[in-house]
């Protein structure tokens, strides 16, 4: 099945114009853009324009139309004022990042209570065509604005799977549930690549990004069920006091649960964080999930968490993300 959401093709912007003056001049706009092969379709006061013609139309709109009565939208989303479209045009650079695969991966160790490396989280890093780095939050924000989140998430997943081939440990790989339309189609290529590389599926742990913000739980269940059927494992990240009920966690049955770093850092001296960390630990053990504390930066916090019964740890105390997997003894490296 051809997945249009994973392709990066020229955007087609849907627009709507209202007002007697705008409707009167719209025919001339259509004829002009048609001559330049920038117009797509028109139906009454609704029309579509290729991105290559949007800036020209915007200039014309600002000069000769009542621009406050013109709106646009992408992919059937909510209508927005035409003045806001410039933000989408300015984010066009994300297309090049995806098409040219300007991405690499860094590795951050995850250790057990004995400070032995248990796994690595594989983190995506991005660069422009000139080699300069782009912060991940910039990349994902731009992709979301331009409707490229699906294509970007797939690129990150597939790249991470390829990088996992050099490891002899588990690999934690992030994914965004809302970027996956249908697990059996969107994730088929991921499973096929792992098989092609000859990597045991159980060595992959797919980590739900922004667990707390997932609204469609049934959709998430379908995704996690697909992963489980294919032999992969999965983790929920940033779990804390605001997370849903124990019944829901029991329903999702994650292999790993990550305690949000805001409850980890300073936990050795903060009674409220200690309470949340203790409740989290109890939840994890109750449903048979492995508790993992992320963002560990001090020996005091590590010792407190280890003493409570946490099994896995991740953070700068044990190693920052690196372009090559950290090897050797973690213990005493800090």
From TrEMBL:
GO MF: cyclic-guanylate-specific phosphodiesterase activity
Residue ranges constituting the EAL domain according to the UniProt record: 87-334
Alphabetical list of Gene3D superfamilies matching this protein: EAL domain (3.20.20.450)
InterPro entries: Cyclic-di-GMP_PDE-like, EAL_dom, EAL_sf
Record-given protein name: EAL domain-containing protein
Naturally occurring in which organism (per UniProt): Lederbergia citrisecunda
